[in-house]
């Protein structure tokens, strides 16, 4: 039964990594589900408590990074509050309008540019804010991947 549980956990971990890079669904939740499903199948006695705590903290960190990454990039570039809101909305909406790959990449950029356009009409500034949003999104993706890998690493270290 342990091998079956491990196989399911590994599949969920891989989905967690994929969805962190390709954020249609929250990748950290899949990785966390891998920990919980493994524990449930094995009777919750094969993982120490610190693995559950670490995993839960990584999920929380992942959500915090997700909500702050693009908006902080915009803010650092001198973008307005409208640009920060636009980046957040663009990240959530554009993948549904233009497809997941283009939407995830272009969503924060277009959202930030539209938001900033409502505030200022300087083309150079718009480009700077849009680029900063993209950079923030990419940085956030790397940081979210780190949280998922910490969760997976903790699982394998704590597993006995």
TrEMBL record:
UniProt keyword terms in alphabetical order: Membrane, Transmembrane, Transmembrane helix
Pfam families xrefs: DUF456
TM region positions: 49-72, 84-114, 134-157
Name this polypeptide is given: DUF456 domain-containing protein
Higher taxonomy: Bacteria, Bacillati, Bacillota, Bacilli, Bacillales
């Amino acid at each position: 039964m342990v091998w079956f549980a491990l196989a399911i956990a590994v599949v969920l971990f891989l989905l967690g990594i994929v969805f962190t890079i390709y954020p249609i669904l929250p990748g950290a939740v899949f990785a966390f589900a891998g920990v919980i499903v493994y524990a449930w199948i094995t009777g919750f006695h094969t993982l120490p408590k610190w693995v559950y705590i670490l995993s839960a903290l990584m999920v929380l960190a992942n959500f915090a990074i997700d909500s702050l990454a693009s908006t902080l990039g915009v803010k650092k570039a001198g973008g307005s509050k409208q640009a920060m809101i636009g980046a957040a909305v663009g990240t959530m909406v554009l993948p549904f309008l233009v497809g997941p790959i283009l939407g995830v990449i272009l969503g924060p950029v277009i959202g930030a540019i539209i938001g900033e356009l409502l505030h200022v009409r300087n083309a150079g500034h718009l480009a700077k804010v849009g680029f900063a949003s993209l950079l923030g999104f990419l940085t956030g993706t790397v940081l979210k991947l780190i949280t998922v890998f910490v969760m997976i690493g903790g699982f394998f270290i704590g597993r006995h």
